[in-house]
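hey can u check if this looks right to u? its 182 residues, i copy pasted from the old doc so theres a chance i mangled smth
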Amino acid sequence: ISSSKIGPYTVIRHLGTGGLGSVYLVERMVGGVVQRAALKVLAPHAVGSAFIERFHREQHILASLEHPNITRMLDAGLGNDGQPYLVMEFVNGVHLDTFCDENTLGISKRLELFLQVCDAVAYAHRCLVVHLDLKPSNILVTPDGIVKLLDFGTSKLIQPDSLLTTTITATPAYASPEQLRN
């Protein structure tokens, strides 16, 4: 990020980088109150129309989902350079596997977290959304044990009459056998 501002947001710090973009902790003033959020921008190598289309699909999918265990979309726009950005709720949490290990959770506590993940995934499926990249780094857990599913960048919105869930982007170690076989 060459500027400390993206649209109306001030960049606080870098949160992480994935295959298609980077996420930053940002803030802006709303009605005299500072609002913190996570802002995602496409990586410089992902400037082609296919990547921008995928980014807009993620935006559309997130806007359609409202579940306590799925990160909420707050805003979207274009930066001064014309680069699209997506703003989501900021989740102060750690990856699922890190949370389990750091808190030395037993089987029953791990299953409680897993059931939250299952509830979020089942909700997305009822909305005809298939995540396609479920892995510990795409699941954050807050200090009070609330699971938040994030990164719908490779997800698919399934047409009711279609059985296809293929995608060219996935994390092979976590992809389903069906996905790997197309």
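The longest helix spans residues 107-126.
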